[in-house]
Amino acid sequence: MSAAFIALGFTQRQRRNRERLRVLNKSSMDAKSSVCPSIVCVRIKPSHLLHSAMTHHSIAASLMIGAMCCSTTISAQTVTPTSSLRPGEVPKWIQDYKVPLPKDGLVPDKETAIKIAEVVLFRLYGEKDIIAQRPYKVKKDDDTWWISGTLKRNEFGSAFNIAISQQTGAVLHLEH
């Protein structure tokens, strides 16, 4: 093995570290773990590419990964549930969690309200129909944005009317 290290230009210290690693890996493996030797060979990069401090970190990481791969207790453990939740059931602490919202809410201005309204309306009624109802009438009533479409002269039909919550951005009312 030493000839291969010399041919690659490894220093004496790097050769010793590699030899120590091989000895540690061989002594920590049991009969069931045949995976570890290949992992050790693949994990380590040539030391001439690494700074000496990086070599020590690489060796430490190799030992930790090797120990995890070779350990039968880690791989044999199964996850046990910590509570008796049924599928689809949400814990109470998650239900009670409230996300802190901005002071002005999620929809602070009329431009944001129009963008939200257009996303919803384009999907339901088609972009062409909704754009034809521009310019929009926008008014704010308490914490609700009301956006309405306008019909051109000599057009028949109904314009959309949508209400959006200033605090949450939820659609509170929709008609067309």
Any overview of this molecule?
By secondary structure, this protein is an alpha+beta fold. It is 45% helix and 11% strand. It has helices at 2-7, 12-28, 36-43, 52-70, 72-76, 92-95, 110-125, 127-131, and strands at residues 137-141, 144-148, 161-165, 171-175. The chain has a four-stranded antiparallel beta sheet with strand order 1-2-3-4, covered by helices on one side. Strand 1 (137-141) and strand 2 form a beta hairpin. Helix 2 (12-28) packs parallel to helix 4 (52-70) and helix 3 packs antiparallel against helix 4 (52-70).
Question: Could you give a short description of this structure?
Answer:
With 176 residues, the protein is of the alpha+beta class.
Give the number of domains. Answer: 2
The count of β-strands is 4
Helix content: 40-55%
Helix-strand sequence: HHHHHHHHEEEE
* Tertiary shape: elongated
Strand residue percentage: 5-15%
What profile does the largest beta sheet have? 4 strands, antiparallel
Rg from alpha-carbon coordinates: 33 Å
Q: Show unreliable segments.
A: 30-45
Number of helices: 8
- Order of strands, main sheet, comes to 1-2-3-4
Return the structural class. Answer: alpha+beta
Distance between the termini: 81 Å
Q: What is the fold's blueprint, element by element?
A:
Elements: H1 2-7, H2 12-28, H3 36-43, H4 52-70, H5 72-76, H6 92-95, H7 110-125, H8 127-131, E1 137-141, E2 144-148, E3 161-165, E4 171-175
Short key terms for the protein model shown above:
176 residues, alpha+beta, Nuclear Transport Factor 2, Chain: A, 2 domains, four-stranded antiparallel sheet
